[in-house]
Amino acid sequence: MLFIVLAGFAFGFLAPYLVRTGRAAGAILAMLPSGLFIFLAGYIPQIAEGERVLFHHDWLPALGVSLTFCLDGLSLLFSLLITGIGAIVCLYSPSYFAGHPDLGKLASILYIFMASMLGLVLADDVIALFLFWELTSVSSYLLIGFDHGREAARKAALQALLVTGLGGLALLASVLLMQQLTGTFQISAMQDSPSLLTDSPLYAVILLLFLLGVATKSAQFPFHFWLPNAMEAPAPVSTYLHAATMVKAGIYLAARMSPILGDTQLWHTSLMSLGAATMLTGALLALLQTDLKRILAQSTVSALGILMMLVGIGSGDSLLACMVFLAAHGMYKATLFLAAGIIDHETGTRDVEDLGCLCRAMPVTCAATLLAACSSAGVPPFLGFMGKELLYQSTLSTSMTGFLTASALLASISLVVVAGLVSLKPYFGKGVELPKSPHEPPVEMWLGPFFLAALGFGFGLAPGYLHRALIGPAVSASLGRMTEVQLPQWHLYDVKVLLSLTAFSLGGMLFWRWSFIRRRLSDLTFLARFTPGRLYEASLDGLESVASLQTRFLQSGRLHRYLLTVILTTVSLLAWSFEMDGVDIAGLKLWRWTDIRTYEAVIAIIMVVATVVVVCASSRLVAVVALGVVGYGVALTFLVFSAPDLAMTQFSIETLSVILLVLVLFKLPKYQKISTNWERLRDGAAALAAGGIATLLVLLVTSADRMPRLVSFFAENSFLQAKGRNVVNVILVDFRGFDTLGEITVLAVAAVGVYALVNLKTEGHGDGADRS
Amino acid sequence: MTSLILRTATLYLLPLLLLLSVYLLLRGHNEPGGGFVGGLVASSAYALHMIAFGVESARRILKADPRKLIAFGLSIALGSAAVSWLAGFPFMTGLWLPHTLPVIGKAGTPFLFDIGVYFVVIGVTLMIFFTVAEE
Hints:
The structure holds two protein chains of two kinds.
Chain A: H1 2-12, H2 15-18, H3 25-29, H4 31-41, H5 44-48, E1 53-55, E2 58-60, E3 65-66, E4 69-71, H6 73-96, H7 103-122, H8 126-144, H9 151-182, H10 187-190, H11 195-198, H12 203-217, H13 226-229, H14 235-244, H15 249-261, H16 265-286, H17 292-313, H18 316-347, H19 363-377, H20 383-396, H21 401-423, H22 443-461, H23 463-479, H24 495-512, H25 514-522, H26 532-554, H27 559-581, H28 598-616, H29 620-640, H30 644-665, H31 677-703, H32 706-722, H33 727-735, H34 737-763, H35 767-771
Antiparallel strand pairs in A: 1-4, 2-3
Helix pairs in contact in A: 1-7, 4-6, 6-7, 6-14, 6-18, 6-22, 6-23, 7-8, 8-9, 9-12, 12-15, 12-16, 14-18, 15-17, 16-17, 16-21, 17-18, 17-21, 18-19, 18-20, 18-22, 18-23, 19-21, 19-22, 20-21, 20-22, 20-24, 21-24, 22-23, 27-31, 28-29, 29-30, 32-33, 33-34
Chain B: H1 4-27, H2 35-53, H3 55-62, H4 66-86, H5 109-134
């Protein structure tokens, strides 16, 4: 199973080579997802029996984190959606992007996204799940910004990343809290004792953070605004990420966690209201758009709201409705997006106002769109019809019947209008002038959508197989127990059928007068000032101005100022921690005068005198030499206190510093006094404080009780464990070798920095020259 | 600078300093020394040559580009740390050959790591020196 999940990452690197195969590129690209699909489909009989298959791989055993994958009804349904629609999108993309130079990059990221998404739905370990969750956000960012030459695409990509990334962090906090309470990272293990979470006083916090995570990912109100903007992505990407799979990750996780966090009043209420609000927002906004893809995106928002609400209701019936609706939505929405892509590709526009009478030019696309639209509108006997009937059945049996049923009805009306807008308006009616003359796209492009749409029809006619194989087990998995939820029988005079009929007639009327209504509603644009999208932009602007403010404050560009900041910060932090630890300064064991040898005193006096000379020097050369004297004095001190390693290093460093200073000495400007006396006094005080605190630190360390322990530890273990007698070197290369590895890396980076800085300046053009 | 004394002295000092740096590197595990100070001594040898004969000549006798030395040293250090990892021990566990080698003495991954440090230090120091001197 590890291979199944990671295959996408491995083949992601090969994808750019795969797409160079010319006309067969689509078919070749589609081979990996379809292979995975077939492999996963092989588990259907086993899972339908009610089994749950776990695959365990160690990852970070010391932290209790593993790469455990769990295949049950829920993850199987999602993985089949991911690989199945993935195959269709892979088949479609090379024709859509024919001749595009970045096609290889796109194919690569698509593969990586598919692998991340598979990992997300299969992971049983919450840390692994979080990792894959973030990987989908990152690949979504890259895919939305695919056309990175346009500012709109870049902005939309960043927006999606920021919103979902923020939610991801909340999700991480939430799963960590769950781990703290249950003591395990495994979802399957948490399921054994859900009361640990639901009865905890932290439950509300966990739930809030969890909801932030799923609501941002699944574009729930008030985070719905990123999804329509993400339509800057190319059509196949929107199909795959923003209709069929990624945006459903939040729904998946809510369903997955439903047996663990669910079944409380808070859970039901919050998810139901979240879903209902999203459903209504999406339904309303869908009517205001004229861009095909944005219409579809808003109706996706509405559908996501429906799904979230159904998970929130949490009964067997509602989860059944959720899974049926999810499968139906995956099929019809993917078809509609792909068809919208075809229209864009063939005509050069996506604005429904500019389109008409395409059915002659592309009959197959038209047929696929019509089939999908019927499913979307809920026309019997399509799968979408069953989804909608089940939706009514669930809303009718809750505590908030009136409100939820009315909302569901409104959402259905909007779905009917949307179905009409995307299927009737572009293909029928009178012909119009188009930027390009349309014709049927290559078979790779229409085959997938047509197949998906036909599937929606087929499963609608014979839902039994789909139910037994996938939907039933998925419902059991999200309920947390085996259930036998039956598909209901339809009666002609049922209230649900009545609701459907109402939706059809009202939706039909709305569609008929759509242009008029849309213009009326657009008059309300002043309301747009108060949307969450504006709030996002305002907070982004705020962040930027705070950043530039503190940059102006902190980044003065003067070395003098930087040094002062660093030194004063260090001094105050150290002083603060001494204060906190209650260090007894008066009780420190100080030296006795008699302990000081004559030559020690001489070295100390030389260093002090040299320091005074450095400060008072009137030429740079004198200062450099005096500073060298201080350095050699330090080296001598090391030598006197039997630290030959340190002394040697100090000598070499001093020598090299002097050489370096000599190299630059003649290139520096005239040595002059640039600071006022007051500034010099202030700097002197800072320097004295730094020296004082360093002295205190040394005294503390040498008098502390742990000193002998460290000494004896290294003395004993240096030779026995590290086979070296020079303790200093053994610490550097063995005991603290990892630090050294980091330090030499920093050294290398610093050298590259110096190289870049000097060469930037000498080249004498661009920013470097201006700033210097 | 065209001091004849400096030039003549440098010609004799360079090999001696390099020899000293290798000596420091090799004895580092048991006696004072090690890769860091060894690298500093080696770089001071080349720095001396640079002052006496100029950057071009120093680059010529160094043969390798300092940037490549950095990359080489970092790779050795990382490789030495990865050896134990690949052998199934925790990252950076010190592994030693069972027998001593002539000249080097006991050889193991910490020693290899020290060699990496040696080259990184030479590379970094000389890269900075050459860059500044060429400016």
